[in-house]
Design a protein that fits this description.
With 158 residues, the chain is mainly α. It has helices at 3-29, 35-52, 62-83, 90-116, 118-123, 130-153. Helix 1 packs across helix 4 (90-116) and helix 2 packs antiparallel against helix 3 (62-83). 27% of the residues are buried.
Amino acid sequence: MNLTLLTYIHTGLSLIALAAGIPVAMGLLRAGATKFWTVVFLVATVLTSLTGFLFPFSNFGDSHWVGLISLIVLAAAISAQYLFRYRGSWRWIYAVAALLAFCLNVFVLVAQLFKKVPALHAAAPTLMEPPFAAAQLIVLSFFAWLIWKAARAFRPAI
């Protein structure tokens, strides 16, 4: 496959997954999620992770671990929704898994921004510098709060 075409497809799927993750997260905070955005988010995120493995590589790197973890988390979210139909604890498991997948997408977005945006790249050229760590800590903190709120809101009725 043409590497440029693969890059465009992978990036486009990533952007769709990121955009769809916003209404999914908002829906989970309201104890409900729209089917349309949920399907778009899950499909685009799975395809993003899968297409990441199509790029040539000589060793299993960090990006592959993120993709693998994302696929495992997505398997839990998809099972919770379509196999277990949000029954019992599968409601909060879905919320946690879906938001963990969204968090991984945002984590990769931040890394790509630091790699591609000149001002950010200058601040953290190896992605080991404090500005990158601070940005990822902010993302992680926000998603920890978001997952906690969604898991509480999207739990089974008592």
